[in-house]
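Researcher: Here's a chain I'd like modeled. Treat it as a single chain, no partners, no ligands.
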Amino acid sequence: MRAIVARDRAAGVGGLALGEMPYPHVAENDVIVEVHAAGFTPGELDWPGTWIDRAGRDRAPTIPGHEVSGIVAELGYGTTGLTVGQRVFGVTDWARNGTLAEFVAVEARNLAPLSAGIDHTTAAALPISGLTAWQGLFTHGQLRAGQTVMIHGAAGGVGSIAVQLALAAGARVIGTGRAASREIVHGLGVETFVDLDRDRLEGVGEVDMVFDVIGGQVLCRSAAVVRAGGVLVSIAEPPPNPPDNIRSVFFVVEPDRAELAELELRLRGGRLRPLVGAIRPLDEAAAAFDPARRGRGKTVIRVVDDVPERLADEAVS
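Model: Modeled as a single isolated chain. Structure tokens:
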């Protein structure tokens, strides 16, 4: 099968190329997904799991990408809850070959059904950002209606989803980012925007929660705005020296079928909108890792050029 192949960790982005890889092995409780669209995280070439398996053994050459939307092509032994031909989306294991390929093996529990009305390109932009936002806000932050949350990087992939989920939960949201992000953040429904280059975080008063996706000095400045009993949550790094009167959490996102289903329900109902940026074919996926070529929104790799269901139905009729 065709795939984007990473052969040399030291080569970084320059070591990515379109090539041929073996069709994936389907293990117990796995499914093989025919990939229609895939997402990736720009920094994953630096992740240990990209290059070694869970036993610490080298597994290069590898296939990057960990977000998938597609069609179930094959079921592994003992797999239940999904059927061949079913539309699905979800997250692949960090230490296995990924989604920038024509087929990928995925644990069935890491996938959720995808409604016919949602296109694969949109679905592929959601799994990691959506699960990260959900777990940060509700699992670790325990956000409730009426609370105030400050979301750093509110125009980014995770931040923009977190903004939408927090507003839908009845929270007051303060979004932060660079000046160029102001219009996007306001467009998501946020009334208060903080320019990280110009404004003081403390100028907006205390908040119940800070959700950080940036780290560094932004994270260091954030503890001061969390009220006593509040929580500082980060996906970038552990919060340094937080005061004793607040909780601090650093976490790595985990696959969760029930949460994927909740996100899909909101997507289907028009209550959630991933910010999709460039859409590139598989043979341009290697170049899409280059920071100089990335624009706003989530870059999605289209592997199969789908005819939207609506158009297909019209053609048949």
